[in-house]
Structures are given as C-alpha cells and as structure tokens.
Amino acid sequence: MKPASEDGTKARVLAAALRNWATVDADMDPTVARLEVRQPPTWAYAATVNISDRQYKRVLAFLRDDLIENRPGYSTPERAADVVEALLQELLAAGRICVTTADLVEAVPRIGRSRTWIAAHITELIDSGRLRETRRTDTFNIA
To answer: At which of 47, 70, 93 does a domain end?
Structure first.
C-alpha cells in the first residue's frame, strides 16, 4: 500500500477542505482566482476551487504568516534542532555514519539558525551522545 502522500489522499483532503472553506465562507463577489490542487506522484489534477478577492486575500495572508514564521532566521531553536535531527536521519538512511561541520553549515538555510547556533548545537549533540568526536577535526560519528 502506498503512503497517503503518494496516492494523492492528502491532495484530495486539501482540495475538499478548501472547497468546504470557500463554500462556508461564501462570497457573492466574482471569482478572481482559482486554486488548482494536484496530487503526487504524477501531479495529476485533483480539484479546482474558485475564490473571491476577499477569500484570495485571506489565503495569501495565511500563507504569508506561515512563511514568515518558517523562513530561515525565524526558526525557533526547537524547530532548528528538529531539522538537524532530520538531517542526521537522512544521512544515516543514505548510509553515511559521519557528519562534518561543513555538512551542517551547508544546511544553514534549511536549519534557519546562524553558524554560531549550529556550533553550540553540535556541542549539545556531543554532550547528549548523539554525535561522537572522531580523530578528524570537525568530523563526528552519528550515534
């Protein structure tokens, strides 16, 4: 059985939620935008939701708020720590047992924190046993 993200279930649920929202938040103004929802893995058409100018502005405001909260530099330490953990998991899944400081610095835009924060977090990961120092400078074994 395919995961929900691959069989398009999430796309269909999103389309239904948007359609429901547009209906409940009904607006007699003319349609100014059409939200087209597509589903992976082939990105086949799932649905189109017509929205008015007011609804369009509400959707954009919601997206802006979400993007501002999640853009690099605005990431909370907890969220950044989760991103680092996900990166370590990805490296392990790819068969790598080591991570370098450069690997983490390269991921700064994804982590959303400064290099200084990453250096301090590496120390925390070493102290917690998640990373182990090696004989090579700036190279750590992933535990």
So the answer is: 70
